[in-house]
Design goal:
rod-shaped, mainly alpha, 3 domains, transmembrane, 12 helices
Amino acid sequence: MSTQTPPAVRAYLSRVRTALADLPTAEVDEIVEDVRPHLLEIAEGLGEAATVESMTEQLGTPESYAAEVRATGDYPPAPTEDTATTEDTGPATAPARLAVWSLVLGAFALGLVGFALGSDLDDGVLFGLLVIVPVIGAGAWFVWAQGTSPVAQLPEIKALRDTLRTKAGPALRQLRLMAPAWWVLCAVVLALVALLLVVKSRHAIIGLPLFVAMAALALWAGPRTESDRRLLWASVPVSVFVLAVGAGLVTYLAGSIDRPSDDYPYNYTANTSYDGEPALNYGDEELDNLYVFDAEGKPLTDVYLYTADGRPLTVPRYGCEESTETRVTTGRDNKFPRPRIQQGGYDDQGNYNGYNAYRPDCAESDKVPFTAAIPD
């Protein structure tokens, strides 16, 4: 240390460093350098009477001072003798590991459900929560009863925490500053999704209590997670769910923009018939006949249809089989109009006459079933 540091401050800092010995050395050095000016100020105020004892009267013991630094700096609590003997292996770590994995796997599953929900707005996927919520709840119950100390002492958690602090420290500090706005955004997104589900299907109203509960968790548990790490088992799943739902909604909206409207009245599409052959469609309706009229409204016969590149617009032709009096496919061509197939019980205009009306089960008619009004 610097020779300009008074002995009392050096001794006090030495005990602070010992109390923080479980943290990474680089972080301990950073903490010591951060608190040194404050301790020098205290020692300067005490003058020649500056000793560890006099500084303790004003600041508390170096150990309690180190504990305050842990609390304000979001560092894990100092390990006790009990945790120090069981932190590496053994049955005592199994419940803590299960609690961690319940959070990790539960959040991952919630992400899948959230993305599926947002991308299709199908409330049926919410039934998956009947399995996911109890899994997360079991881990939450453990940390609520035992605290986060058993989890914090797991070697993998220590390694993850150290990595995040050394590699992503600035980003984490920025996220903490944005946290209040994030929790409000979570509640807004959840309310929006609930509204979209109800608009799409009235049955989705039974899922409203779930979204209300999640929004309440976001607004209540989210801001308190910084001071109570047990609430991670509520805030992390909600955050993952909202992020996944948001990503799914973006996918849903992008698909809606690219998808052609089914209500467009002049939407001819290429499709296949029930037998796998090319067919002519108008919207969702498969066409097997077309009627063509001249400018005076007179129907034309023997009209042949072609595409813009000269290909014949060939579709199935139907007729009646005499032996069975049923409709059958008689070939394929591009000649229109075709004989209209009439089924038993219907007249030439397609009106139902009842089963008592005499008509073969299948009959062909060349009559046009309507009159065309040609616009001027």
